[in-house]
Amino acid sequence: MTPDLNALQNSLPQLEALTIEWGTKIAITLAVAIIGWIGAGWVENGIEKTFSRVKNSDPMLVGFFSNLARWVVLVVTGLAVLDRVGIQTTSIVTILGAAGLAIGLALQGTLSSLSAGIMLLLFRPFRVGDSVETPAISGTIKAVSLFHTELITADNVQVIAPNSVLWGVTLKNTSHYPDRRITFIVPISIGSDAELAIQKINRILSAETRLAPTHTSEVAILRFNSTDKVTEIEVHVWADQAVHTALKADLLAAIWRDVLKA
To answer: What is the pTM of this model?
Structure first.
């Protein structure tokens, strides 16, 4: 045999051992990655199913904790995979920390939305399905994620707003309490009988079954408007959130028909 062939034969056991070693390492690494990926999905689904059995569970918190748990499992899996291939994870964590600081300075707006999303999910100033109003936006909450909130406006338009728009500002949650007050002005000419108009309005209210029984309706003269030459009668009634808008429209129509038009 030639020296080259002898050297090749002598190196075959080493190549075989190296192949087995790296093949085993790659197989285990792939197995860890696959198991971690599947496990992350199982954890996410498991948390969602667990919360679904809890009475009055909040969909916002369910989504937050299930996504958080999934990403924790994926990060741990990623570190385990890197460790299996011989990469020092401590140095990677240090590099990621420095890179994270630089990225954080460049993405201050995005991180502001992230921190606002965490605060919204933890303190829950509103829930999915609530109607909210801020100086910048108003609508019904459909979904809340870590970075943005999805709302539906009154004219059925989808709005994707950064969480920073909803946190740290004055926010009105019109769905928080079951009953809402309806207030409107009924103008009648100064020469008309204001007492008779109030009696007619009270009769309309007494016949309305959708008014909240826990609150008292109020009908009274607000002021004499000399500029428009009308007496302004202020009406306060209370109703459930579900019928608030429809009831106001029906009351205005009835008052126009029986009081103003008569």
So the answer is: 0.56
